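Lecture 7, part 2: worked example. A protein chain together with uridine-5'-diphosphate.
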Amino acid sequence: VQAVFRSNLSHLLELMGSGKESLIFMKKRTKRLTAQWAMAAQRLARKLGGVQRDQKQILVHIGFLTEESGDVFSPRVLKGGPLGEMVQWADILATLYVLGHGLRVTVSLKELQSNLGVPPGRGSCPLTTPLPFDLVYTDYHGLQQMKQHMGLSFKKYRCRIRVIDTFGTEPAYNHEEYATLHGYRTNWGYWNLNPKQFMTMFPHTPDNSFMGFVSEELSETEKQLVIGGKASNMAVVYGKEASVWKGKEKFLGILNKYMEIHGTVYYESQRPPEVPAFVKNHGLLPQPEFQQLLRKAKLFIGFGFPYEGPAPLEAIANGCVFLQSRFSPPHSSLNHEFFRGKPTSREVFSQHPYAENFIGKPHVWTVDYNNSEEFEAAIKAIMRTQVDPYLPYEYTCEGMLERIHAYIQHQDFCTAPGPAPPGAPAPQSPFILAPNATHLEWARNTSLAPGAWPPAHSLRAWLAAAGRACTDACLDHGLICEPSFFPFLNSQDAFQKLQVPCDSTESEMNHLYPAFAQPGRECFLQKEPLLFSCAGSSTKYQRLCPCRDFRKGQVALCRDCL
Ligand code: UDP
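Predicted complex, written out as structure tokens:
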């Protein structure tokens, strides 16, 4: 059956169920964005032309909203608790529905079991019942529940699962044996999934797939109204919870010299003591009213927490400048409670690295808050700067539809990959050494790796400097690391073509391989495909890195990826 774009979302709203505050929040959002989704669908349909799209049967099981996982979020929706996850799930549902797929939504264990065909009253199903879905989107909580209740069929069907995982899971933490042996075990990791099955909120870890969410897009008329209606001395503080404001008196004092400060901090009856009296606190606002506030404001200011939420993108889309603190040293699972136990080694250099690295000035200012003069100078400069509303394409409805369409069409983790096992000699080398001898390219006319996605000819491979992760090595060349190309590179042939002087070649399990070690002139190949990793570095190794190009404003897709 062909998938047909949908523009009427009323049936989706029914599928989403009711009752919980979290579902009410999500449904309001979906309803409000209906016109944007419909328009985006039209534009994408035109862009894709008559391309064949199969209709998939999809289960969306939102594990963190189930009572069985404790559902700590729903009761806090109206009390300043996190909303980013709900924004994202609402947008995922809308995307899958608008793309025209068959959809089931579950937010309880009972519904999950009945959709999986597990007989009621039975703890789990020991038989391998066929899974009636082509794809299942869930989260870590849901994954645990599925494992418990699917019996043997979990292993068989786990390649169809996609895990929504805000901060990402690196390969070293995902591989059970390796994680256990090398100290990468966490509360979340070691599911032995293909790392691309984990889908993140921001494109911060190329080892995972970037799922994202959307921010409302202004029409040209709205943009002009917003630009004309800005109050140049109005600031909104990022953070719905009073704790975010704690200990920030000094910055608030400086800011207060120049601007009128607004907040949207939840409170019960009295002003929270963390929020100074000179701040105009609106209390937690409904999403559309929060956006209206952003439209008037000049500055959206972050004090270091929450990390990487949707609000800064909304602020920038509504014409605000986002001012945030640089973290030095960077925050990570090694030094910060929030990241402790998360299956990633990523170092976070500011409150919102995406805003810093993908958007930047004039929309985003990242400064050292320990330096009061720098902080004050930034505020003064921002008040004089004129910025237009800006929303990166990948965070528009069309961008999200385009990206998820491409994943559904092309990502297949159920069929074993094509390329030869490590060490096996290729009949004819597919590599071409670039004219300046710095990197490898993939011959367009070779028949090796047919049907690879991203297509193999977008591969550009470098030998990184010692101590450099592939994530960074690729960025150095204006490219992005593409882990699905590692298997192509994992060969003596690649080292040879790059003129790396290997005295010996070993094949071992190590998330930094393939790599070259200078001292003994040893080359190392990767033995375990699940451990191919863009992240990770060691001064001992020069890593062999697979990079690719990307579309401007849609980093998840290469130029020839659609
Ligand atoms: N938001 C809201 N009312 C407010 C402040 C924020 O509805 O008074 C919404 C905002 O539009 C955003 C969402 O809360 O989409 C989550 O934003 P945030 O970046 O704070 O992430 P979180 O920490 O909640 O996940």
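The chain has a mean pLDDT of 94. Residues 140 and 163 are 7 Å apart (CA to CA). Keep this in mind for problem set question 3.
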